[in-house]
Amino acid sequence: MPPPPGGTNGFAIASLIFGILGGILFAVIFGIVALTQIRRRNQTGKGMAVAGLVLSGVWVLICGGVAVVAAMSTPDRSSEGTLTEEGSVSSRALKLGDCLKKVPSEGVVLNVNVMPCTQPHAAEVYAVLTLTGSTYPGEAAIIKEAEDGCIAKVEEALTQDARDDESAEIFYIYPESATAWQRGDHEVSCIVGSETKQFTGTMRK
After folding, report:
1. Same domain, 26 and 106
2. Among residues 163, 168, 144, which one has the least CA distance to residue 205?
3. Are 87 and 113 in contact (CB under 8 A)?
4. Is there a contact between 44 and 8 (Cβ–Cβ < 8 Å)?
5. Same-domain pairing of 157 and 61
6. What pLDDT, on the 0 to 100 scale, is given for residue 5?
7. Range of the domain at 106
8. Which of 63, 89, 106, 121 could covalently link to 99 via disulfide, CB atoms 3.0 to 4.6 Å apart?
């Protein structure tokens, strides 16, 4: 005689919840545990456990698709690290000499469109600075150090033509938060460019 019904299995409920939220690992573990317990304890909740497992599979497919799209949109670089095609990169992945399709906007900049400097572009990374200090100094202090550091690099890094161009301005991208700082993001990208003019070739010496 089978044991009397034992109610809804808690792991099944947890599997469904984590499946909805995208907690793939927990959804799978809880789903498997739930199916085992439901059969042994004569509980309900099999549908929720199965749904949690199915949703986990859906999340895996979504994450895989996003990764593929990101990989396809990331521009190629030469063996020297020079961009060979246009694409989108994380602002933290910018390198010295990268050229940008447009100047960065104010505030937090997560991604930028980059291109080879041989094509018409709006801006170029002319220096990369490493901020000092071991603890997060606060946004105001970072902005001050970034601005002073980027200005100090102008004469050393830029050609005379770039320095004389009245349309060219200095921009910079810096660690946007204490969280970014704690994960090791201590770099500032110094950028020269124009909102009204296109450049071809490098502006660096």
Report:
1. no
2. 163
3. yes
4. yes
5. no
6. 62
7. 87-193
8. 121
Alpha carbon distances (Å) from 130 to 118, 125, 134: 28, 14, 11
Would you say residue 66 lies in a domain?
yes
Q: Is 152 among the domain residues?
A: yes
- 158 and 62 in a single domain? The answer is no
Provide φ and ψ at 178, rounded to 5°: -65, -35
Task: Tell which phi-psi region holds residue 184, choosing left (phi > 0), alpha (psi between -120 and 50) or beta.
Answer: left
**Taking the CB of residue 67, how many other CB atoms lie within 10 A of it?**
10
pLDDT at 72 > cutoff 60 = no
Q: Are residues 110 and 179 in the same domain?
A: yes
What is the C-alpha to C-alpha distance for residues 197 and 204, in angstroms, rounded to an integer?
A: 17
Give the chain's domain count: 2
Q: Is the pLDDT of residue 80 over 90?
A: no
Tokens, residue 15: 């599997």
Q: Are residues 124 and 38 in the same domain?
A: no
- CA angle at residue 107 from 102 to 108, to 5 degrees? 90
Mean of the per-residue pLDDT values for the chain? Answer: 89
pLDDT in tens, 135-171: 999 999 999 999 999 999 999 999 999 999 999 999 9
